[in-house]
Amino acid sequence: MVILCTNLWNHHMGPVCREMARLNGADFKMVLSEPLDTPLSRERIQNGWMLRPPQEPWIVQPPRTEADWQTGAYNDLIWTADVAIIGATSRYAWRTIRKRVRTGKLTFFMNERFFKIPRGWKYWLNPRRHASWFRTHLLLSPPNVHYLTMNHWCADDLAFFRGCTGRTWRWGYLVAVSAEPTPKPVREKVRIGWCGRFLRWKNVADILQACSSLENSLKRQIEVILVGEGPEKENLVRLTHELGLDDQVRFLPFMSKDDAKAFMRDLDVYVFPSGRQEGWGAALGEAMDASCAVIANEAAGATLELVKDGENGFTFKDGDIRTLTRRLDALIADAALRRKFGLAAWQTMQQWSPAVGAQRLTALIDAVRSGHTPRTPSECLCGLIR
């Protein structure tokens, strides 16, 4: 039995888990461990999360209350599984997870980077940090523990903890992909877009600043559409007016998953400006699957996994508005380059699909259990990173 244990239902995890169930049949389960009546669950529901997963035989539904967790069925699944893949699970499961590790059961941890805020030299001034480092090091040191990195920078953090050396594998959020690239219509203006929650660390203001820095002739050739809701929206609307971009920029309200996918298919360029607090950034993969020419901040978790600068999109360093402006300039002026990047982006996502991920992960698990070394190249899904 292989289980993937996480805290709350996330629709980005659904496609790869469905493929794992298809490959492994009844020997695969997705275990949701966070009770629906906890403060975390209530907060997510208030933020628009849909925590009720579909009724599928491979999904172990989340406990409704903390009392439901105490029945023991969830702990039994975590303990008895031959292989456990542990994501951001609830506090209720950690005693059993640590017991698995101590007793030598094969366990894969799967998560984003440890330090979304830079740790700096002051990290060691707090004695609690020493204890935290030691606990993490002990948890990740045993040879039965492996790590699936859901962030390009996660391997650096693992090196800091001296954990999972020779057992760190490339992974990510694997969005559903299209069977064919999306043709882009010929139109008068280049359509540039972004979709998500308006939060400060999403850096949506960088898009506005870059558009403001374009030559006037290029400004007349673009329309910018920003989709979503969030606490920064009012500030962004005000900045749009201050920069004189009212004729170029439109704000649209939050969209459903299907509407957001259709919105991306209708874009020419997708800008992904999020910084290091973006653990992964599934929207980038969705935009690439929609054959958008992408420009992405390399500090975000997904960027350097998916985007090869100058081959299937552009990257820029965090906060580098000048480079972002130059990248926009190049794509606005060159329709052939937009088409080239869009096709290459779609082709990239074919190798980061849920089907490919499930096949590679199943092969990795089989290889580890049999003591063999997987042959997947390091730059590919489930390739050895360090």
Précis, in short:
This protein is an alpha/beta fold. The protein has helices at residues 14-24, 39-46, 66-69, 73-80, 94-102, 127-140, 154-161, 204-212, 216-219, 233-242, 257-265, 282-289, 303-306, 321-333, 335-350, 354-370, and strands at residues 2-6, 28-32, 59-60, 83-86, 106-111, 145-149, 168-170, 190-197, 222-229, 249-252, 269-272, 293-297, 314-316.
Characterize the structure shown:
- This protein is of the alpha/beta class and 386 residues long.
- The chain has helices at 14-24, 39-46, 66-69, 73-80, 94-102, 127-140, 154-161, 204-212, 216-219, 233-242, 257-265, 282-289, 303-306, 321-333, 335-350, 354-370; strands at 2-6, 28-32, 59-60, 83-86, 106-111, 145-149, 168-170, 190-197, 222-229, 249-252, 269-272, 293-297, 314-316.
- The strands form 2 sheets. The chain has a 7-stranded parallel β-sheet, sandwiched between helices. Strands 10-9-8-11-12-13 form a 6-stranded parallel β-sheet, with helices on both faces.
- Helix 7 (154-161) links the parallel strand 6 and strand 7 (168-170).
- Helix 1 crosses helix 16.
- It is globular and about 65 Å long.
- The mean pLDDT is 92.
Task: Give the number of DSSP strands.
Answer: 13
Report the sheet-strand fraction.
15-25%
Overall mean pLDDT: 92
Percent helix among the residues?
Answer: 25-40%
Sketch the major β-sheet.
7 strands, parallel
Structure class: alpha/beta
Rg value: 22 Å
* Principal-axis shape: globular
Strand order of the largest sheet: 3-2-1-4-5-6-7
Helix count equals: 16
Measured distance between first and last alpha carbons: 27 Å
Order of helices and strands: EHEHEHHEHEHEHEEHHEHEHEHEHEHHH
Low-confidence runs: none
State the oligomer. single chain
